[in-house]
Write a structure and sequence with these properties.
- The structure is a single chain.
- By secondary structure, the chain is α+β, with helices and mostly antiparallel strands.
- The chain has a single domain, classed as Glutaredoxin (3-Layer(aba) Sandwich), CATH 3.40.30.
- It has helices at about 15-20, 20-30, 75-80, 95-105, and strands at about 5-10, 40-45, 55-60, 65.
Length: about 110
């Protein structure tokens, strides 16, 4: 039996997202998902949607969350563990930017 693929929770760590609390969000997600064998929280340099930050991407799910707050951490963690997407956080990101970032991630750039 093949092991289950990892689910990555990529948290933008560029200046704008950090100024809006991305560092704390990453710490909280790392703590919350510490017991999840298939989940890995990682920093990401920049997704390019600074005005919509903090930004978090779940991969390979290809889900992009914008304007994330500490109140969203539990719902994002549940999604990373296999629960439903947090649809309220998926709005407003430029579709062409999403396509570009997801193509970079598909190429292994994370």
């Amino acid at each position: 039996m093949e092991p289950e693929k990892a689910h990555y929770v990529l948290v933008c760590q560029n200046v704008d997202c950090l100024a809006r609390g991305a560092g704390k969000l990453m710490e909280q997600l790392q703590s919350r998902l510490a017991g999840c064998e298939n989940c890995e929280v990682r920093p990401y340099m920049c997704f390019g949607a600074c005005q919509d930050g903090p930004n978090i991407v779940l991969y390979p799910e290809r889900t992009w969350y914008a304007h994330v707050t500490e109140g969203d951490v539990e719902d994002i963690a549940k999604h990373a563990e296999g629960g439903p997407p947090v649809t309220r956080l998926e709005e407003g990101i430029d579709p062409s930017l999403k396509t570009l970032i997801f193509e970079l991630l598909d190429a292994g750039l994370f």
